[in-house]
Amino acid sequence: MPRGRKKLTLDERIRETQQSIYNLENRTQELYVELQELLDQKKRQELEKLSDALDEAGVSVEEVLAQLNAQESGTETANIA
Predict the structure, then answer these.
(1) Residue 70's CB: how many other CB atoms inside 10 A?
(2) What is the C-alpha to C-alpha distance for residues 8 and 28, in angstroms, rounded to an integer?
(3) Are 26 and 20 in contact (CB under 8 A)?
(4) What is the pLDDT of residues 31-54, one digit of tens each?
(5) What is the pLDDT of residues 19-30, one digit of tens each?
(6) CA dist 81 to 3, 25, 52, 70, Å?
(7) Which of 9, 41, 54, 77 is deepest in the core (most CB within 10 A)?
(8) Are 23 and 31 in contact (CB under 8 A)?
(9) Count of helices and strands (H, E) across the chain
(10) Percent composition of the chain: helix, strand, coil (DSSP 3-state, to 5)
(11) Distance between CA atoms of 62 and 36, rounded to whole angstroms?
């Protein structure tokens, strides 16, 4: 017949609980790092897509920024491409 789990003392239970919390905090930190890496990767992909679209349209980054700045200041300029 299998024996039951050893009854732990209060100090042992405290240590186990502290270790579990420590392990969870480490895992959480690892997940935050992984998430940041994934978000950075997504941003790079989006920037590459945007760069490709600008190249296809024959528009420079400076032209787009000038157009956006003009719109923010309320000045109308010719449409890009």
Answers:
(1) 13
(2) 27
(3) no
(4) 999 999 999 999 999 999 999 999
(5) 999 999 999 999
(6) 79, 51, 14, 16
(7) 54
(8) no
(9) 2, 0
(10) 75, 0, 25
(11) 29
